[in-house]
Each structure stands twice: as structure tokens, then as C-alpha cells.
Amino acid sequence: MSDFSIIGKRTAMVDAAGKTTGAGKYTDDLTLPGMLIGKILHSPFPHARIKRIDSSRARALEGVVAIVTGKDAPNPYGILPVGHDEHALALDKVRYVGDNVACVAAISEAIAENALELIDVEYEVLPAYFDPEESMKAETDLIHENKLHNIEKDYHHVFGDPEKAFGEADYVAEGRFIANEVTHAAMEPHSTLAAFEIDSHTGKPGRLTVWSSTQVPYYLQHKLSLVLDMPMAQIRVIKPLVGGGFGGKSEVIPLEIIAAIAARAAKAPVKITYTREEVFWAHRGRPRSIIDLKTAVKKDGAITAVKARVVQDGGAYCSYGVVTILYSGALLGALYDIPNIQYDGYRVLTNKPACGAMRGHGTVNVRFAFESQLDEIAARLNLDPAEIRRRNLLKPPCVTINGLRVQSYGLPECIQQVVERSRWKQRKGQLGKASGLGIACSHYVSGAANSIIRSDMPHSTVNIKIDRDGGVVVYTGASEIGQGSDTMTAQIAAETLGCSLGRVKVVAADTDLTPIDIGSYSSRVTFMAGNATLRAAEQVKKQIASAAARKMNCAPEDVVFREDKVFRKGDTQGQSPTPLEPTQAAVSVSGRVEGQILRGSLQQKRKEEGQKYFLTFEEAVVAAIDFHGALTGTGSYAPPPEARGGKHKGAGVGPSPAYSYSAQVAEVSVDEDTGEVTVHKVWAAHDCGRALNPVSVEGQIIGSVWMGMGQALEEEMVWKDGMLMNPGLLEYRSPSSTESPEVEPIIVESVDPEGPFGAKECSEGSLAATIPAIANAIYDAVGIRLHESPFTPERVLAALRARKGAKPINLTEGVDPTAPRRFREHGGALWFRGKGPERHPLDPARREAADAGGDD
Amino acid sequence: MIAANFDYESPRTLSEALELLSSREDAKILAGGHSLLPAMKLRLATPALLVDISRISGLNYIREVGDRVSIGAMTTHAEVVSSDVLQRSSPLLPQAASQIGDTQVRNCGTIGGSLAQAHPAADYPAVVLALDAEIVAVGRGGERPIKALDFFTGMFSTALRADEIITEVRVPNTEGQRVAYKKHHHPASGFAVVGVAVRLKASAERIDTVAVGITGVSHNAYRAVAVEDSLRGRPLGAIAAAAARVANDVDVLGDYYASAEYRKHLAAVLTRRALEQAAGVRK
Ligand SMILES: Cc1cc2nc3c(=O)[nH]c(=O)nc-3n(C[C@H](O)[C@H](O)[C@H](O)COP(=O)(O)OP(=O)(O)OC[C@H]3O[C@@H](n4cnc5c(N)ncnc54)[C@H](O)[C@@H]3O)c2cc1C
Fold first, then answer.
1. Ligand 1 in contact with B127 (CB < 6 A)?
2. What is the DSSP letter of A114?
3. What is the mean pLDDT of the segment spanning A462-490?
4. pLDDT of residue A603
5. Using CA of residue B120, residue B123, residue B126, residue B132, what is the dihedral sign?
6. What burial class does residue A471 get, using C-beta atoms within 10 Å of its C-beta: 0-12 exposed, 13-18 middle, 19+ buried?
7. How many domains, chain B?
8. Cβ contact (<8 Å) for A732 and B184?
9. Whether residue B109 has its Cβ less than 6 Å from ligand 1
10. What pLDDT is recorded for position A802?
11. Which of A429, A574, B3, B265 shows the greatest Cβ crowding within 10 Å of its Cβ?
């Protein structure tokens, strides 16, 4: 295939050893002399005014060093410039069960925890809103005073002439879909360690260093500066190893700021690590969504228009909400050729933990609805579900009706691959009783073309330094969160410089050392930080080439770098030329003996030797350093103006320099007696542009399928009066390797013209296809159309009963999962329930529980 | 969260353990710790003293005594799964044990701990009921065998007295009978949403002996007497109709994963399947 030596090779992650042996350090592994432990007091009420906080009893407890509340850092913040509606610690109101009220820093976790119980808070309980459609009618007791009807933001987009298209359609499908709420459930709970330099004379805090489990060190530095009223230059953010983010660490999480506030008050380092229950409250996951979808088609299956109304239950704060609701509309485009689109999106506030960005941000729930409805249309028109998708392909290069530029487009091949490998044509309809196949497609951005902070700054900048030791050090702000960012960086640098991977050291995500990168989210790192790395490496390479060219007596353009050697063009083809004796001697000596003196004398000797036919990488570097001084290069990336989208309100979200494409076929069987769905196999084809590291791409595809399968079959945050009923991993299950079906990842390479070596994204796009592929397979198996996810055994059975006209299963509140109208409030288990904050005495649910004989 | 403060003792003999247990009002036995420690971390349990019985020798064994198998209270779930004696003489227990939680839980959790805990969705309770097992409790007054039928008295509550320790579980040899355990796992915890343990002696024409133990459905595990009554002396064809009566006489629990109605339905399906499997008409 290609003549790369590192790109496209199955490469072990460069940080794998530390993670697998346990030697690697995550934030919670870190300690500092004199470090205190912080614990946060959370609100037990979904909506209440704080009348008074009395922490005197807690303060008196031995071992308690500081207690901070909202007054200690009153500046509001939020990840989006339009959504500065959060306080690290509540100022006057709490807005969800779990909201942050106070923090104790003490010499031990046990003391801090005990102190929490001694803080007396007086609340005035306010009416609360839990259902988004109810919340939208609110006139009084608004969650945020400036958000009328509790609507965070609504958008109304019309592209083309949808009304006309609906009028001229041969068939119109219409339905309401409900996707319940899911969360990231990353393995590592959030953790932050904050330490100020304390001036030993004045006792005043000086520079601040924060170690944190974050996907966005630069945004964290920015928000810390805002809330703590400190210049950014006085703040250093370091990201140690991170155990998974999936979007849950892609914004500033309250503990990251609270730790710093507490450290400032305590004049000592403070570490806070969330418990799993707190991770659930911090949330920022995928909002439960109501999607009213209408699709117009012609007889041949050509889609002529789509109308979508999406209501997202955003929780109590804006978070990424404005972006999420925009993605849900924008990503109706750029998968298929849809000439007319109407989109009405409502991001609604409710008294629940804030939703934010989660893998497949904004697209997943709408894609579930769309791909399910497309399947319904295919059945109605008697078309093969794979065929109807083929009939609606885009013809790139093109710009969609809503302004998204598409250049590389591997969707046709993805469909082809999964159809062939699953033997779709031969097996569909032939699998026997209660078994079926379903297909669905999806896509995602390779980074947002417009940064959330509107500015002209590059989205990624990378520096490279090479010194006489021959080591290549890459300084990047890109955040490794387990997805392989450091490995990708090393691979691109090594390939470009023609050196071995082992020579490259990646220094990442330390705001004092590394240039700004806006973070690991929206699948932007490979495309953007990768391009920046490529450019930085090329800049250094140029310097080495010019020195090497002088040595080898050729033009700099004729110098070729490969496998730790530097050749003249033409000398490299196929075999490497026999090395010259003196050169080899020089390498081994300089390799073995340290010290400038010897190196210098060898250098002198080399100078005397005259012309060379090839140089080792080290020799070439030394030659260049002798010539230029230290070698450094900088590269940066900003998306091109052509990729930045249209001009309408909200046009900034959706555009990307490149889109990934996926198609999946799922094979399932349904137990018609119990409603249990078993996924037997998923064929998942993904167009990632170019697979820089195929094993990594496959891992991302498989992980996406698992996460999609979780949302399809079992993951659901269950709410009752704003209380999360399943805030723990013994109640909320994300699938892991133990329950994985066979997943066949299929890599499709469309080689994008602007991606680094043609690469696009591969870690989010696949997820959205899994849910509808499973839904469509269930239809194929047993003939039911599930419009509410997840497809739990109970819901499946209820739908089966309804279809057979058998006595219906009465789901809580009589919901029909094939035609859900609204979200349900749930009972809740007697014994699986997390402890959670206690209910307040006025809460009717508490009285009911008491009447029912306690709720332990 | 971290547990509240507590004292810890690890006696070497049963009598020392018994003494420690009655020395303090809120002393508790610690066995495998896989129910007690999570509860302490959530501060749902705040014992002042933990009496760790894992160092007492002679509480971990599986041996055949006449037509019974005796199992020491400290025998882990994993040991039950891999016991040749049980596989041969009383396979219902290992069948169910292999479906408890995950490997870590099976390596630490003990049969005595599981029975004493009496979790409404634990697996063993259904099994000991179906087997007509005997649970041996020892107090300072001596040994007291308790019939499984009398043991489970409510959610997390048993006939065990506060100063008693379970030392042994005695199950009958079931050779010549057929057994089956069917379970619907909660996807996250692994506990039984419904678990059905069945013991059966039957020919194609006639069911002679039948015992059905149910867990997960109500406040505590119970024998499905209505099912048993409508099967005894009847042909195998009666199974489906009988199974539908499995939860008629109990207070069925509902939760966010499975409503009471769904749970009841599931119990009927799994009861039918377990009976059919034991009868050899389903694999
Ligand atoms: C993740 C997870 C999944 C699980 N899944 C399942 C499952 O699917 N099915 C299932 O059945 N169980 C499950 N369990 C529970 C598990 O089987 C426990 O091990 C068991 O319930 C308790 O046994 P233990 O030895 O750990 O007891 P401990 O936790 O040590 O003790 C439990 C209680 O019993 C008391 N006790 C212990 N031993 C004795 C004794 N000999 N005499 C008197 N009192 C005693 C203790 O004082 C305590 O009150 C799960 C547990 C976990 C953590």
C-alpha cells in the first residue's frame, strides 16, 4: 500500500506500559507535602434558596483547616461564553439535588466527611421542574431569572423549502422518539489537586498549579483565572494520566475550581476526588431528548425533506447545551443528501444535574430517530433498508443545504462493506424465528471548524525541539485521555522526520510548557493537533535537510528521511546502501559515550571526512545543530475559512473540516417470553480517512459499539422528583468486554485532502449507528418499532404484547414504548437505590416512603 | 464514602467469636465482606465492632455425611462451584453459585454470609428453600439447626439471633432427582431480578416430588407453594399453567428496572423454564 514506515502500522500506545503496570500516575495518585483533602457538601433539594450557612460547628472540629462557600469566589463561569451561569459553590440558590454548597478542607478524608455533617444550611424550598415540556411553560420560580420559560436557548432553522417538499411528497413518515438520559461512566472519577505558592514573608498566595483529570487544560486555566480573579499567566494546569473522559471532562467541572478556592483559603494544597455518586451528579452527559421527526420521500425512496423538533432536558445549567441543541439540528445534514430541512430545537432547563457533551455530542439521539424512521420508510416502500440509504447519498465534494462542506465521503464503501460481510442479502429474513438483521449509518465531525471561544487563534499549536542527543521532544497541548493522542502525536512526528518512534518523547497538556490546544473534544485532536504536529515536524525537518544536504552535497529537496537515516533521493529506493565504515564507528561511539567533548571531537573528525552518502538521524541532527544552533519548529492549525459554515444564527456549530462516516449491521435475537434482546454480532465499518494506527481505530470502533449498545439496551439514568435513582455502577451498567457481542471493525480509508496523512476522526462517529442498527434489527426479528431507548426487556415485552393485542404490561405511568409521549417518573428500587442526600421533610415522596414503611 | 469508625477482632476459635459477638451491642460478624463492607461504606451499616471469622479453622469444608452434604459457613461461592462432591450429590447449589455476581464476588463471598444477609435478590436463599436445607446456627447456648423454610423472615431479616453464628449448611443428596436454576440478572449488579430454583422427581406421566424456591420477587425468598400444589401428582403438561401462579400469593416488588407486573411475568416464565428444564423437556 503506502510507503509509510510508522503511519498505518499497528502500534502499541506509547503510554501503555505505565497504565498496565500501575506505575502511571493519575491525579488521585498524586500527593504533596501538607496536602489536605477536600469534601463537598451537596444540596439535598432540587430547587431552593440558601437562607443561611452556618459552618461554625464544622470549623471547630479538630483537623478542619478551611471551609469555603460561594462567597469565597462569587464570579460566575460556564464552558460557553454565552452560558456563564454556574458558580463553583452556590451563591444564593441550589438548582439540583447534588448542587455544590460548601467545601471542607481537612487533614483527612474522614474528618472532612464528618465536618460536612456539622455544616448547617437553611434552605427555602422552591417549586422545581423536572419534565422539560412542563418546564417550558414555567412563568414563576424560574431556574435562572434571565431564562424565560426555563428555555436556555431555542433555534428555528429552515433550509430550502420544506413545506413545498412535504406537499409534493409521495409518502411522509412521522413519529415521536424518546431517548432517555445516559452518562459517560468513565473509569476514573474526576479528581483535582490544587496548590498555591505561598509567599513565606507575607503568607499571601502566589502562583497556582492545578493537576486535574481534564480533557481541556486550557479552558480550565481560563475559567480558574475568571473565578479566582487571577491572571492566566499565574496559573499552571497540568493534566496527568486520565482514565477516560467521553466528554465528561471536556468542560470545567465544579471540583476543579472548588479545589483551588479551598487551597487558597487553607493556604495548603487541596485534593478533591469525587466519589462515584458525585460523578453521577456532576454528570454533563447526554440529555434525555424528545424528537418529533417527519420525513418526506418520493416513491423511489429519495428523501426530499426532513422536519425535526427536538426538546432536550438540559438540567440546571447551560454547560455545552447551546452547542448540543445546535449539533442536533446541524448534523441532520452531511450524512445524506437532504435538500430541505426544518429544525426547531429547544434546550430546556430543569432541576437536574446539567447535561453536557458526550461521545457523539448532539447527534446520537436524533440519529436514532432518523435511522429508525428511514427503516420504517423502507419497509413501507418495500425497499431494502441498505438500498434506501444508497439512494440518498451525497455527491461530494459538495456543500450541504445547511452549509456543511463535505470533501471525503467513505459512506458508500462503508455500506458496501457491512452488507457484504454480514451477508445481508443472503441472510436477511432467513435467520429464523425472532432473529434479525438491522442496518444504520452515522457520521461525525473531525473537530469543530469554529472554536467555542470565537477568536482568530489557532486551534492547535505544537512545538518540536531536537537537541544533540538526537531525541525528538514534541510539546503539545493536546490531551491524552486514553484515546491515543500522545501515540498519534509521536507517530506523526516520527513519520515526518523519518526517525524511529522510540526517539520521540511527547510532553503534553501542561500549560506552562506546551502551547495552547483547545482540548480533547469533538474528535478534533488527530485532525487539528495532528496537522500542527506535521507542520512543526516539517519545519524542523527543513533545517535538518539543509544541513544534511551540505554534507551529502545535494539539494535540500533531494534529502529523504526514513527509518532513522537521512539519504539522498534515489539512494533510498528499496535497500539501504552499505554504510561507510567511519560513520558507523562514529554512531556507536557517540551512542555509548556521553559528553560534549568527545562528541565535539568526533564532530571535528567528521568535518574533516568530507562528503557523505548518507547520515544517521543523529549525525544529521548534530550537523544541523552545528549549523543552526538548537533545532526547534512550530506548527499550528486553524480550520480553513471554506470549512467554517454558513451565516445563519447558530451556523457556527456543525461545520467541520472533515466528516467521518459509519455504517453498521447488527444481528440480534429477541426472547419473546421475557423481552430480552441479545446482540450476537455487529459489523461496523468506519471511514476514518486514514487509519494512522489501525489497532487504535479498531479499538475506538469497538468501544463506540459498546457504548451505543449500552444506550440501546440498558443504560438509563432514572429520575424521581429530581433524584437520581441509580447513581452507582451497581445500578447503572455500561457494557464492557464481558458482555460484548462479536464486533467486526472494518476500516474504510477515504484519505481526506486536508487531514494529516488523510486522517479524520474515528472515536465518536460509530456510536450513533449502533442504537438504530439494533432497533432496526429488533424490528426485523419480531416486528416491533421501539421509539423509546433503552430497549429494556420490560419495554420490549410491552411492545410485543401490544402488537399481539395481548393483555398489556402496564409500564410505570402506562407508557407505550412504541409511541411514547413524555418522560416517565419512576418508582425506584427498594434495595438498589443509592443512598443519596436525604429527602427534605416537606417532600411528599418522603412522606409516602415513610407511610410505606421506610425506604432503606 | 468511607465507613464510620469501628473496632476489629479476628478470633481463632468459634467460642471466642461468640463471646466477642455478645460483648457489644452492635458487633457484627465479618465473613467475605462483600455485602457488609459496601453497606458500611454507604453508612447503611455502622457496626462498632467487626468480628472477622475468616481465621477460625474448621468453618470451610464440603463433605458428605450420610445422605446429606455439609457445607461450612465460610465456604466461598467459587468453592461451591468447583466442588466435585456437590456436582455429584447436590448440583443445584453449584449451578446457582456459578451465576452469583462476578469472579471477584464468587472468590470472596461465603455461603454463610449470603444466607445471613438475606438479600431479597440473592441466589442462595431460593436454592436452600428448594433443597429443604438446614442452616446450623451456633450460639453460646449451643447448636440450633434451622429449617430453610423457617429461616427467611423478611427483607434482610432471618431467624438468626443477634448472638448466633451460622456454622454450617446441610443440603440433601439429590441423586435421583432433577434440579435447575434459572435467573434473570440485573444488568449492573448481577443480582437476581428473578431467580428460580427447582427440584423435581417425575416420570413423563406424573410428578412425584416438586420444590420451587423463588428469589428477587418479594421481600424475601419463598417457596412457591401454589405451583407445587398444582403439580404434585400431575403430568408434566401441567407445568405451564402451574408456573403462572408463582407470585399469586406474595407482595411483588417493583423497581425502575422491572415493574411489579413485569417481575411477576418474568417469574412465571422462568418458573416454567426451570421446571421444564428439570423435567428434561427443555434444554
Ligand atoms: C458486585 C456484587 C455483586 C453481587 N452479586 C450477587 C449475586 O448475583 N447473587 C448473590 O446472591 N449475591 C451477590 N452478591 C453478594 C455476595 O454474594 C455476598 O458475598 C454475600 O451476599 C455475602 O457474603 P459475605 O461472605 O461477603 O458476607 P459479609 O458481607 O461478610 O456479611 C454479610 C452479613 O452476614 C453476616 N454474616 C456473615 N457471615 C455470617 C455467619 N457465618 N453467621 C452469621 N452472620 C454472618 C454479617 O455480619 C453481615 O451482616 C454480590 C455482591 C457484590 C459486591
1. no
2. H
3. 97
4. 56
5. negative
6. middle
7. 3
8. no
9. yes
10. 86
11. B265
Tell me the one-letter amino acid at B10: S
Pocket flag, ligand 1, residue B3 (CB < 6 Å): no
Q: How far apart are CA A363 and CA A448, in angstroms?
A: 14
Q: Which residues contact A610 (CB under 8 A, 6 or more apart)?
A: none
For residue range A8-41, list pLDDT tens digits in order.
999 999 999 999 999 999 999 999 999 999 999 9
Q: Is B1 part of a structural domain of the chain? A: no
Which domain range does residue B27 map to? 7-52
Kind of pairing, strands A93-94 and A48-54? antiparallel
**The predicted structure's pLDDT at residue B204:** 79
Tell which atom from ligand 1 comes closest to the C-alpha of B73: 41
- CATH number of B135's domain: 3.30.465.10
Kindly state whether residues B140 and B205 are assigned to the same domain. Answer: no
The answer to whether the Cβ–Cβ distance between A812 and B265 falls below 8 Å is no
Predicted confidence band of residue B44 (pLDDT cuts 50, 70, 90): confident
What pLDDT shows up at residue A627? 75
> Measured between alpha carbons, how far is A146 from A627 in angstroms, rounded to an integer?
62
Please name which of A5, A105, A33, A841 lies closest in space to residue A495, comparing C-alpha atoms.
Answer: A5
Rounded mean pLDDT, A356-370: 98
* pLDDT tens per residue, range A653-694: 999 999 999 999 999 999 999 999 999 999 999 999 999 999
> Amino acid identity of B207?
I
Amino acid at position B176, single letter:
G
Q: How far is the CA of B40 from the centre of ligand 1 (A)?
A: 13
Residues in CB range of A21: below 8 A, 6 or more apart: none
Contact of B258 with chain A, judged by CB distance below 8 Å, is answered with yes
Instruction: Inspect the interface and report whether the beta carbons of B256 and A828 lie closer than 8 Å.
Output: yes
Please indicate whether residue B215, judged by its CB atom, sits closer than 6 Å to ligand 1.
no
* Residue nearest to ligand 1 atom 2, measured at CA: B101
Q: What is the pLDDT of residue A853?
A: 40
B2 falls within a domain? no
Neighboring chain A residues of B258 at a CB cutoff of 8 Å: 793-794
Dist. CA B112 → ligand 1 center (Å) = 8
Q: What is the pLDDT of residues A609-627, one digit of tens each?
A: 556 788 999 999 999 999 7
